[in-house]
Amino acid sequence: MTACPFRAKVLSIRQLTRAIREMTLEMLEPSELSFQPGQSIAVTVPDQSSSSSLLRYYSLASPPHSSNQLVLLLNSHDRGQGSTFLLENEIGADLQISGPHGSFMLQQDQERELLFVGTGTGIAPLWSMIATLLAVPSSQPITLLWGLRSESDRYYLQELETWKTHHENFSYVLTLSQPSSAWKGNTGRVTDLLQAFSTVDHLAAYVCGNRTMVKEVTDLLHEKGDCAVFRERYHENS
User: Fold this and answer.
1) Same domain, 28 and 87
2) Which of 147, 154, 176, 203 is the most buried (most CB within 10 A)?
3) Does residue 96 sit in the same domain as residue 187?
């Protein structure tokens, strides 16, 4: 799938937590983008120190069937030029973009159960994948393990509960690494959750988040058995 340049405008901005914003872009020219769940787009960012521009990559949280509207997850704590530039744009702003990019995509494997492991906004490509899978009736088990820091960092909770209610094959576990004393859910990192798996030979895992987590999860799954692992490093400093 060849990456092509296109224009899009900022359609909406939703504050999900104090740090996380959901930005929806509307395609202008062309009016749709053909991509696979898990892929990313590259945003053209003016370089203030020169007359040139930079490309910064962001995974799409939206599924391919919403090809006219593209959803990004942005962290205001990021200090990279890409995040800073995007967060300064208001609704209606015109952006130069190219895509799709990347080889982090769903694989056709009906024989294995699907495990998705993410931290922070690394949930974006996994979200696109899961939304795509749940749009088609299936009995293939889908499990999401999502690691966040504290209660105030949680978002998409209503959407997760809706998926869980309407799809018997979907389940999720949220774990917090630095919760308050009032937290009654899972604590620790997503790697801790994997310790409960007695075998992984039946799994295909998709992993996205900070580099350390991705490596640790990949190593742990390979140590436990014959697990197919597909991974993407979330670009924290983009």
Assistant:
1) yes
2) 147
3) no
Comparing CA positions, the residue from 203, 143, 196 lying closest to residue 169 is 143
Whether residues 19 and 120 share a domain: the answer is no
CA angle 188, 207, 133 (to 5 degrees): 115
pLDDT in tens, the chain (238 residues): 678 899 999 999 999 999 999 999 999 999 999 999 999 999 999 877 667 788 999 999 999 998 899 999 999 988 778 888 999 999 999 999 999 999 999 998 888 999 999 999 999 999 999 999 999 999 999 999 999 999 999 999 999 999 999 999 999 999 999 999 999 999 999 999 999 899 999 999 999 999 999 999 999 999 999 999 999 865 443 4
**Cα–Cα distance measured from residue 9 to residue 65, given in angstroms and rounded to the nearest whole number:** 19
In the chain, the number of structural domains is 2
| Residues written for the chain | 238
- Is the residue at 153 inside a domain? yes
Phi, psi of 126 (to 5 degrees): -65, -35
Residue position matching structure tokens 């801790």: 192
Spatial neighbors of 88 by CB under 8 A, at least 6 apart, are: none
- The whole domain housing 149 covers 113-233
Which token pair is 182?
């009032």
Stated pTM of the model: 0.94
Query: Are β-strands 20-29 and 4-15 bridged in parallel, bridged antiparallel, or unpaired?
Result: antiparallel
Domain assignment present for residue 238? The answer is no
**CATH number reported for the structural domain that contains residue 197 in this entry:** 3.40.50.80
Residue 223 lies in a domain: yes
For residue 170, the surrounding DSSP H or E stretch is strand 170-176
User: 65, exposed or middle or buried, with CB in 10 Å at 0-12, 13-18, 19+?
Assistant: exposed
